[in-house]
Specification:
The chain is an alpha+beta fold and 341 residues long. The protein is 53% helix and 16% strand. Among the domains are: 100 residues, no CATH class; 118 residues, 2-Layer Sandwich (Tetrahydropterin Synthase, Chain A).
Length: 341
């Protein structure tokens, strides 16, 4: 409890005691009983009550998170030019009054969920994008009063600044900026840009009205049921398309694998055929060379010898008539000469 409140409490007790003593005096007077001591007590209590009330009304305690605006009948315009800082201050009792304003941070929330926002029920901001889609935006604004501009704020807004300045300003700026973006932009690539533009405009507007914007929080963006259903169907279609692309790519890979296998088999067959052909050429060349050597080595005696060996396997002796070479005629190994007529 501050000193001003303490003095006012003591003044209240003094006035209460004074009333009680006065009542007792009237009761004793009605009974013809003396009340000399009570009369002195009345004077003491009256003086104490008046002094405590005057001092209590003249002392004002301002909390550390507050600033005080002084209404004065002697000040030009009815207000002191300077606001009261935190601490105990002396004012003219019954002629000057003080109204305090908080300079600590305040939060104003607009939400679709009951109990989360400053207004009961659905208080989200309904806006339209540049492609005509309706969106619902939930947001919170953290702000404070400029301590150096308390007097100006009081003159302009008094204590109505939250409902008549912060709320309509925020809702209007959000609607204006949202209308510059497409619905797909504000939920994906351009959401940060949207938030930055809203914040910049709010800072300017709040500063013009003696407020300081601490932070703007874009809590959530949701859509109408029709658009949400369309988005869901689009996502399903995209998933199906991706699945089809995956199947096509898988088939391509299988076809490529089969082609490579066939190509490998064909290459192997070609290589085998080339090897067989080369082997046959080598064999043919060897046979030709062997035949040539054989042809060069054939003589009449060799032919006759081979002929005898082929007569019969069991023949060991051959009788040859006088004047004949062999019993049987030998084959002619010479090539007859041809005579041209």
């Amino acid at each position: 409890m501050n000193i001003s409140g303490l003095l006012q409490g003591l003044a209240g007790f003094a006035w209460f005691g004074l009333i009680g003593v006065v009542v007792m005096i009237f009761i004793r007077a009605s009974r013809n009983q003396p009340a000399k001591g009570l009369n002195s007590l009345v004077v003491v209590l009256l003086v104490a009550a008046v002094i405590l009330t005057a001092v209590g009304a003249g002392l004002v305690y301002v909390q550390p998170e507050e600033r005080g605006v002084v209404f004065s009948a002697f000040a030009q315009g009815g207000l002191r030019k300077e606001a009261l800082d935190p601490g105990v201050h002396l004012i003219i009792p019954f002629i000057e009054q003080v109204r305090t304003y908080p300079i600590s941070r305040q939060t104003y929330t607009m939400s679709a969920t009951t109990g989360e926002g400053n207004v009961a029920g659905d208080d989200s901001i309904r806006a339209r994008t540049n492609d005509g889609q309706e969106v619902f935006i939930e947001a919170s604004v953290i702000f404070s009063i400029d301590p150096t501009e308390i007097i100006s704020l009081h003159i302009t807004w008094q204590d109505r600044y939250t409902d008549e300045l912060v709320r309509p300003t925020v809702r209007g700026i959000i609607r204006d900026v949202t209308s510059q973006f497409g619905v797909e932009e504000i939920v994906s690539t351009q959401r940060t840009v949207l938030e930055e533009q809203i914040t910049a405009l709010m800072e300017t507007k709040f500063k013009e009205n003696n407020l300081i914007l601490v932070d703007f929080v874009l809590r959530d963006i949701h859509f109408s049921e029709e658009y949400a259903l369309a988005v869901e169907q689009k996502q399903i279609a995209e998933q199906q398309s991706q699945q089809a692309k995956f199947v096509v790519e898988s088939k391509k890979q299988e076809a490529e694998q089969a082609r490579q296998v066939a190509q490998g088999a064909a290459d192997a067959a070609v290589i085998a055929a080339q090897g067989a052909a080369e082997a046959r050429l080598i064999q043919a060349a060897a046979e030709a060379e062997a035949n040539q050597l054989i042809a060069q080595s054939i003589t009449d005696e060799l032919v006759q010898y081979q002929y005898v060996l082929k007569l019969a396997p069991g023949v060991e002796t051959i009788f040859i008539p006088s004047g004949n070479q062999f019993i049987l005629p030998l084959p002619n190994t010479t090539t007859p000469s041809t005579t041209t007529p």
